[in-house]
Design a protein that fits this description.
434 residues; four-stranded antiparallel beta sheet; 26% helix; alpha/beta; disordered N terminus; 20% strand; six-stranded mixed beta sheet
């Protein structure tokens, strides 16, 4: 198997659908409760650090990280822990959750203070204490990302501001509303990791963000790169900005690059200034049945139903509600489910838009292969899955699939390629069992 995979993919021209791009972020009032899952990140779940009846404050640790690849969970309200319960995660797993009822006073935890950062170690320690995880969707603990084994080989910080999925505009609003924090976070990461260069990648359909960031840059080594309007752009694929190709298996750090979402790097600046850990999230609320689409600053743990009510409610019975965008988003089974750290959107669609198209037979056109950002042979992977051929799935690198959904989107036969590949990855993990 070649160390490198085909990268000359065409991607997909998805609909623009950015009707909230000019809507300034509004803050949602306190919800009736917040439900804080202990598994809001990749890696080991956090463990509850409070008990029923405990008094907590804004910024209080309510979940302690469960290991190196993990993250603390903090309360966004002052109030009382009403219960320690279990909820169902978007992937179907059962997770422990801390439920807190606000007292309305929003008293800040006395321990909250700006961190003392003087060098690389204290910087990474501060990021770990902040509870920051990748806010673009992956949820990977940021302190781990900023601790590569080859730190001395990292020469480029890449800021992912592409936001190429339809509907989502929260990152665009971050560029426009938190410009100085974006730059502040970039400078901090460059300083403490000794990275000489930063590239900010933004798709060309966000001219205001591009112009504002270019005008604001006041330090050497930082540049804005306008990207083609093509899905997908993110998922830590660095070729479009650097010309470097990440090997498989491998990470951007293997080619000297660290990738951060724009919202993540902006939070770094905010935390260094205030010491307030990650307790809120800017996200886009949209979809054809949302009465008042908005960009909302919402407390992490807010029930989705209350967020939708803040946006005027729904105009019809939903056919599908998503965490995230229509390409990579995860279905919400219950509107009592909470907002998570890595949510960047909540989308609600009518039954008409949510209805899956009727599939027909594969015509072997090869569009799925040409569009895949990793050059995977989607139709061959699905055939191997249908036949239960785990060995062939391994040869086809099925586990590399990042579930972007491009193959399903471009398929003229409307075959559910991406869901089938997701099942194939599960089968590989289970030793061949479907």
């Amino acid at each position: 198997m070649s160390k490198f995979l085909k990268r000359s993919a065409q991607g997909a021209g998805v609909p623009h659908e950015k009707r909230t791009s000019n809507l300034e972020t509004v803050a949602m009032p306190l919800p009736s409760k917040i439900v804080l899952s202990m598994g809001q990140h990749i890696g080991a779940p956090a463990s509850p650090a409070v008990a029923k009846g405990d008094q907590v404050y804004v910024g209080t640790i309510v979940g302690k990280s469960g290991g190196f690849v993990s993250s603390d969970i903090h309360s966004g309200v002052s109030g009382t822990v009403s219960e320690i319960t279990t909820i169902t995660a978007p992937n179907g797993a059962t997770q422990t959750a801390v439920v807190i009822v606000p007292d309305g006073e929003q008293k800040v935890d006395p321990a909250i203070a700006p961190p003392e950062v003087t060098d690389y170690k204290s910087f990474v320690d501060a990021i770990r204490a902040s509870g920051l995880v990748g806010l673009g969707g992956a949820g990977f603990p940021t302190a781990v990302k900023l601790s590569p084994k080859n730190l001395d080989e990292i020469d480029t910080l890449l800021i992912n501001g592409a936001e190429c999925e339809p509907y989502i505009t929260s990152d665009n609003r971050c560029f426009l509303e938190d410009t100085h924090h974006v730059l502040g976070g970039i400078k901090a990461v460059m300083k403490y990791l000794n990275i000489p260069k930063c590239i900010i990648g933004i798709e060309g359909n966000k001219p205001e963000a591009i112009a504002k960031m270019k005008a604001a840059i006041d330090a050497p080594g930082i540049e804005v790169k306008q990207l083609l309007c093509r899905y997908p752009q993110g998922a830590e694929k660095v070729e479009n900005c650097t010309g470097r190709e990440v090997p498989f298996p491998g990470l951007p750090s293997d080619v000297g690059v660290i990738v951060m979402n724009v919202t993540s790097v902006a939070f770094v600046s905010k935390y260094l200034e205030t010491g307030m850990p990650l307790t809120t999230k800017r996200l886009t609320v949209d979809g054809d049945i949302v009465k008042e689409p908005k960009n909302v600053e919402v407390l992490i743990g807010t029930p989705i139903q209350e967020l939708l009510d803040f946006c005027g409610g729904l105009t019809a019975q939903p056919g599908k509600v998503l965490y995230g965008g229509p390409m990579m988003g995860t279905c919400v089974a219950d509107l009592s489910q909470p907002i998570l750290k890595n949510n960047n959107a909540v989308l609600a669609f009518s039954e008409k838009l949510a209805r899956l198209p009727k599939k027909t037979n594969c015509i072997h056109c090869g569009r799925c292969v040409n569009a895949c950002p990793l050059g995977l042979a989607a139709k061959d992977i699905v055939k191997a899955y249908d036949n239960g051929n785990v060995e062939l799935l391994q040869e086809l690198n099925a586990d590399l699939c990042m579930s972007c959904g491009t193959c399903s989107f471009v398929c003229p036969a409307k075959r559910p390629l991406a869901p089938s590949i997701a099942l194939a990855k599960i089968m590989m993990k289970n030793g061949g069992k479907k």
